[in-house]
Amino acid sequence: MPSPIPAVRTIKTYAVTPRPNLDAPRQLEMSAWDVPMLCAHHIQKGLLFKYPPDLSVEQIIERLRSSLEEALFHFYPLSGRLRVVTCEGGGVTCHVEVGIEGEGAEFVHAVADGIGIADVVAADGQDLPHFLKDFFPLDLALNFDGCTSPLLVIQLTELKDGIFIGCVFNHAIGDGTSFWHFFDAFAEISRCKAVGKEVVLSRPPVHDKWFIGGYGEPPIKLPYSSPEEIVVRVSPPPLRERMFHFSSKSLAKLKARANSECGKGTISTFQALSALMWRCITRARGFPPEQKTSCRLAIQNRARLQPPLSPNYFGNSIYASPTTTTAGELLNNNLGWAAWKAHEVVSNHTDSAIRDMVHKYMKNPIVYNLHMFDIHSIMMGSSPRFDMYGCDFGWGKALAARSGSANKFDGKVSAYPGWEGGGSVDLEVCLLPEYMSALERDEELLAVVSPPVKLGVMLGTSSK
């Protein structure tokens, strides 16, 4: 039987090389937050747009390619190559080489045959479509055969009635904050070019890496005999993926409930929402009461260090910090109890705690992989604070933010700002099929989740 024709066809791949940046060093060392991410899959996020009026696809491609060239000039680590090498005497080190031959990023032009905006958005209650993975051209961890593949790839995918701009971004180069900083600058440059305006970035990146003292000069030496030992391939089981929408009004009620139940008054909206998902997913999994379960929260270090790092610090500066209990204790107590445990994790993430974690890492450096995530837990990733819908390329607000297949596993929950703003949130939830079916029937979740914004409202064809 012949193989099925793929929904997404690659038309052409372009090499994009920025003009020389005389301020860029030839070699960039990686911090104690970057090195652990060597085996992580690339960050894969993208935005869906209506087809830009009065522009041909050739004009769109030309604007995006020239904007990417300018963006790479400022975000020069993304135009380099990551080199992981074995040291004399044993051990492995890594760094980014900015000035090597063939440096730059890739820009891919693709076409999604027969796929439209409505297919990408997916109707309320439907799983996210499997073809989304084809909107992102790279989805595997790195192969360490000398210098790696490009650290950044942009893919423009043509739809029947729209376009999707997908960005594949090496996780060892930056976290979600840095990813959306770059994406926003890329869009800002495109807007400037649309009106013939000089490009002056509103938020230039800060490339000075943060290192803790007492361990000699970088690079960090890893206890492996060869780069190949770092690579751990993970093939997750088939997952169901769904978006759940929470309006600002619904979240305000949830926050009030959590604070009332715990009697503290300091629970944030996201802590309450994280506690809700922890409880509901644990209930859906049907764990025995004695089963330990954790909720991991992705917490930024930038503003918590003293002195703080610049909010424009480019790189990784984040920890996935857990709070742990048993399934029985989690479900026998109320939402406020669970939210307070999440609150304590965030409150305890102080300058001294961050430095203690860095010291601990430097004494025993490792590389993370997905096998390290507890299958009985959930991981709250991304952030509704990322200004995803502020990434305007000159043709208006995006209709939806979506992701590829990378870094997904049972219990991964990714937060996005809601399209309508105002503090609304969308959660992308990945679960085993039987767990997702149970979650969709969970009464505590159903009492909080909201109907999504209708596609007609986003397209401007409906007032409700």
Automatic annotation (TrEMBL):
The keyword Cell membrane does not apply. Keywords: Acyltransferase, Transferase. One of its GO terms (molecular function) is acyltransferase activity, transferring groups other than amino-acyl groups. InterPro entries: CAT-like_dom_sf, Sec_Metabolite_Acyltrans. It comes from the Eukaryota. Belongs to the plant acyltransferase family. This is Uncharacterized protein. It comes from Rhynchospora breviuscula.
